[in-house]
Each structure stands twice: as structure tokens, then as C-alpha cells.
Design brief:
- The chain has about 160 residues and is α/β, with parallel strands linked by helices.
- It has a single domain, classed as Rossmann fold (3-Layer(aba) Sandwich).
- About 35% of the residues lie in helices and about 20% in strands.
- It contains six helices and seven strands.
- Strands 5-4-1-6-7 form a five-stranded parallel sheet. Strands 2-3 form a two-stranded antiparallel sheet.
- Helix 4 crosses helix 5.
- It starts with a strand and ends in a 5-residue tail after the last helix.
């Protein structure tokens, strides 16, 4: 079955309420991720999930969240009516930039599935995946640029390998 791959933070989950934990040093990553169950569902992500399901695609999740967040993430997806699907989470000891982690997983998934589309909010991830032949939709609906959320998350994903 063909698949659509969805990131979670910034695509499905509105992380703006918890960014204050990582705005300055020392960054409080445990608190940042512990606040994830309080995330609201982003309308743009919900709409893209609905469109993928209507197109007959299986939903696969690919997040930079660490593995220790799995139970909270599974519960959050269920609470917000997201479809069941494989959930790929970053190993707890993997601190590579998100773009490299996600490319590795996407390539692995591509060896077994037809990937119709990947939806991600991180421009570095989007760029690298596109350079490697994937069809990627750049999710911009959280639109955190006006309050610095985009820059904070970009640093977390690229410099610290945390989300």
C-alpha cells in the first residue's frame, strides 16, 4: 500500500506553548517533551491526514521526538483522532541533525513502500529529502516565524539533534 509520511511537531502538534523550555541555555529538553501531551492539533496537519486517507494512503509517522516519549506520543495521536500507523521515533542516543535521521528512515521505508508524499515543517529536512528524490510538502501552517518558534526549533533539530 502506498504511504504518506507525517512529522508530528509543527505538522500535527502545535508546540508553541512549550518552546519556552528551549529558548535559552541551559535548554530543558525533558520539560519540553514532557509538555507534549498538552499540544493542540494543528488544522493543517489534520486536513492533510484526511486528504491522505481519502487518497487511500497508509499513514506513517516520522518524528525527531526521542523514543522515551513513545507512550505520550501514541496517546496524543489517539486522543486527537489520528489514524493508527507505524511510529518512527529517534533513538534516545541519536543526536544527529533531524535531516540525516529522517533521510535514513525515509530511505529505509522507500525500500518497502511507495512513498507518495512526506509532510515536514523543517526546511532543512524538506530540502534534503527533496534532493534525494522524495516528494515533500513543506508544512508552514504553524507559522512560528513571527515569534521565533521556527528559529528555536531549527536550532534544536539541526544543532542539537533533539526534535
Amino acid at each position: 500500500m502506498p504511504i504518506a509520511i507525517f512529522d508530528i511537531d509543527g505538522v500535527l502538534a502545535d508546540v508553541r506553548h512549550r518552546v519556552h523550555w528551549v529558548e535559552r541555555r541551559p535548554k530543558k529538553w525533558v520539560e519540553f517533551f514532557e509538555a507534549a501531551p498538552e499540544d493542540e492539533l494543528l488544522d493543517g496537519g489534520r486536513d492533510h491526514i484526511a486528504a491522505a486517507l481519502a487518497a487511500g494512503l497508509e499513514i506513517v509517522y516520522l518524528t525527531g521526538r526521542p523514543e522515551w516519549c513513545r507512550a505520550d506520543t501514541v496517546e496524543w495521536l489517539a486522543q486527537h483522532g489520528m489514524p493508527n500507523g507505524p511510529l518512527n521515533m529517534r533513538p534516545d542516543d541519536d543526536h544527529r541533525p533531524a535531516r540525516f535521521y529522517k533521510l535514513e528512515i525515509a530511505q529505509s521505508l522507500a525500500s518497502e513502500h511507495e512513498i507518495v508524499e512526506i509532510i515536514d515543517d523543517d526546511v532543512a529536512v524538506v530540502t534534503l529529502l527533496r534532493e534525494n528524490g522524495f516528494t515533500v510538502h513543506h508544512a508552514t501552517w504553524m507559522d512560528g516565524g513571527t515569534n521565533g518558534v521556527d528559529a528555536i526549533l531549527r536550532e534544536a533539530q539541526e544543532d542539537e539533534g533533539q526534535t
